[in-house]
């Protein structure tokens, strides 16, 4: 294809460009002031100071030049931990929790994950695709261009495969790129209440092979927590997934210091997520293993838990990502920058760390760092434009959507 | 004026109408399912079940009928405590606080209220009007139709009057109705650092009379707190304001149990605001005095303080309102329903209490309960329409704006 046929775009007059590449600009965020980015054929062809962009590029036939009037531009944001596909809604449980019930009490009474499981099993493929598309449209408007999505509300071979096929269908049907994760070990479904071994056997011997043979997931995740799956049960599932060629992730140490983080490190998981109760030794193990710690402050907030301070994480040298954990039970907030504000305000994550956590570190947490999360030549042309003069305003003026334009693979998808 | 000339509108096919009048519908929120509201000449003419609306009204000449397709309708929301008019912005202090500095340390180093004072003094009248209008436009899109706004960043006779004149100008220039509050005793300006008595004398003998003679404020407020104004100093200002005919409000017991709430009760304040550290005796006094307690969870969140549990407030029988406290230092989040979610999740305020706190109780906290905060015949035709099927979703799906239409004084101002 000739140069004239390709989508080619210059984003110009950028007040503050966060490249997330410290070698490309100032400080840890690689900031370039007065910048331009040249996007060509879905990739970034060039980024730098506006004055350094060759006139031949600006004047190339068929090129579009967009003046963003001094606004802030970041890589398209990455939400690296979500449960975005589900049926039903759980306002009633929210009201119960506000009135004093705990998340575990609600789960024990048949609410929680199992209530969403029922609604998700009952929903048709098309219903789930429509619900997911509507949520992704909201997410996109906040600047998110890549989103990890887990199964785990099916909890049967058929329903888990349905969820993963919904995720695959959604990946092609709207602009946000999806990273599919198999989470068959999210909860024990009621029909296996007296047969843990039967369910685990089904996850390991039926679900994982079916998921892999259909190419439906990049990762396998396990909810390793007291009352859910033990460390040994989690290990069996994750080892089977690893042998089958999946990457691994772990829901670890959310409600108790249970050992999930150490397991994640031991097995070389790409990420360990939650970690509200992870001990220093576990954090050191994650750092040594290069496993990204994914902070999910929206869940900590919504479950009315104490927020962990990230100083311990940073002292241990762990890389930190920030995500919404969007789901209908513990984290129904889909606003990723708001999760970032919570990480800053309540967990003490510096503002630079929040931006890294929503871009380059989130990319690492989903194994896509070679393509997204950083703005440099050859990377995906995924950009979010924010209608602010200072990138810190995106977190400071919390609860409002500051994103005014989104570009995905070089195309303007939110104008 | 004849009936045909008046603005007349029927909002029909309302899935859930929160009248906030327990006698008009079910439960404490006075809910009517399958409702309609007839608005006429800026007032509510009728509300009830859609089927009970006389056909003659629907078919009246010149009437507009809007079908809201089963959505939720509430009274226009009321943000009863804001500092919405100011110059400058304080992202830098936010970054410092995330890195560990306290609000008081930042204030002691010349940041805090005084930094906004300098920027507000330096800003022109027109600049402040434009900044305020832009913020009010955001607030309106969240469903807010009445907003209290305080002075307090001028801290000189001239600059306090400028702020209050800006508020008056804004009140006529955009749809949100404003309730002006004089807060000359917000901080001691640097030029009076060694002359507290001089500043207090100026507030009492120059500012209050000037504010009253120009009719610029409905209320006088004082920041009664350790290191700001003592209980005795606050009392002198508030008594002077009361004698001059202003209603009174108090910033009370935010950072320490300082005595502000008791003072508010003693003086019959319309509201006592913050109250994170108010003791049981103080709460009982507020209840006895009929003073509304205004919860400001956005400030508690953003200052990384512990949230008080409202059980003590409710046990004491205090009426509770919820507000953003929108300001550039301690609460830069302008999203009122998000403050409501925080009040529910982190303070234990039941969902019914949150809706009352953003409507009927907020109206009481600004002395406008005869006109706004409730939907019944004769009240102002101020409505917010939310694109949800269950009113609890507005709080549950936090961080996203669910408001899809706003009507103020019978006119559609957000279509």
User: Given the structure, what is the number of helices of chain A?
Assistant: 16
Helix proportion of residues of chain A, in percent?
Answer: 25-40%
The CATH architecture classification of the largest domain in chain A is Alpha-Beta Barrel
Gross morphology of chain A: globular
* Largest interface (C-beta under 8 Å): A-B, 36 and 36 residues
> How many structural units, i.e. domains of chain A?
2
Low-pLDDT segments, ≥5 res of chain A: none
CATH topology of the largest domain in chain A: TIM Barrel
CATH top-level class of the largest domain in chain A: Alpha Beta
* Multimerization status: homodimer
Q: What's the average pLDDT of chain A? A: 96
CATH superfamily of the largest domain in chain A: Metal-dependent hydrolases
In angstroms, what separates the terminal alpha carbons of chain A? 27 Å
Strand content of chain A: 15-25%
Largest sheet of chain A, in brief, is: 8 strands, mixed
- The secondary structure category of chain A is alpha/beta
């Amino acid at each position: 294809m000739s140069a004239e046929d390709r989508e080619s775009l210059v984003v110009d007059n950028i007040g503050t460009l966060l490249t997330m590449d410290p070698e490309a600009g100032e400080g840890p965020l690689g900031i370039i002031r007065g910048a331009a980015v040249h996007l060509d054929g879905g990739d970034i062809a060039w980024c730098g100071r506006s004055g350094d962009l060759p006139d031949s590029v600006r004047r190339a036939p068929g090129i579009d030049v967009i003046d963003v009037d001094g606004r802030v531009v970041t890589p398209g944001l990455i939400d690296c931990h979500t449960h975005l596909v589900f049926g039903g809604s759980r306002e009633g449980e929210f009201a119960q929790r506000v009135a004093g019930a705990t998340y575990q009490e609600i789960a024990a009474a048949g609410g929680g994950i199992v209530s969403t499981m029922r609604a998700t099993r009952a929903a048709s493929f098309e219903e789930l695709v429509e619900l997911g598309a509507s949520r992704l449209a909201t997410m996109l408007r906040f600047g998110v261009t890549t989103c990890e999505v887990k199964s785990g509300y099916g909890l049967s071979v058929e329903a888990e495969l349905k969820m993963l096929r919904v995720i695959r269908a959604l990946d092609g049907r709207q602009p946000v790129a999806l990273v599919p994760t198999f989470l068959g070990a999210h909860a024990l479904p009621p029909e296996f209440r007296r047969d843990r071994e039967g369910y685990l056997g089904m996850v390991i011997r039926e679900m994982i092979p079916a998921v892999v043979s259909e190419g439906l997931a990049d990762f396998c995740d396990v909810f390793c927590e007291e009352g859910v799956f033990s460390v040994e049960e989690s290990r069996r599932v994750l080892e089977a997934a690893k042998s089958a060629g999946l990457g691994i992730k772990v829901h670890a140490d959310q409600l108790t210091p249970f050992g999930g983080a150490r397991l994640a490190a031991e097995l070389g998981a790409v990420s360990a997520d939650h970690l509200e109760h992870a001990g220093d030794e576990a954090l050191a193990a994650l750092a040594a293993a290069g496993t990204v710690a994914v902070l999910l402050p929206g869940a900590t907030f919504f479950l009315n838990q104490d927020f962990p301070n990230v100083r311990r994480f940073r002292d241990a040298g762990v890389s930190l990502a920030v995500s919404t954990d969007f789901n209908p039970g513990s984290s129904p907030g889909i606003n990723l920058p708001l999760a970032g504000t919570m990480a800053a305000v309540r967990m003490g994550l510096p503002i630079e760390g929040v931006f890294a956590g929503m871009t380059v570190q989130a990319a690492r947490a989903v194994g896509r760092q070679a393509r997204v999360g950083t703005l440099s030549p050859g990377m995906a042309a995924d950009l979010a434009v924010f209608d602010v003069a200072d990138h810190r305003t995106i977190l400071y003026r919390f609860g409002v959507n500051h994103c005014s334009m989104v570009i995905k693979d070089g195309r303007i998808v939110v104008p």
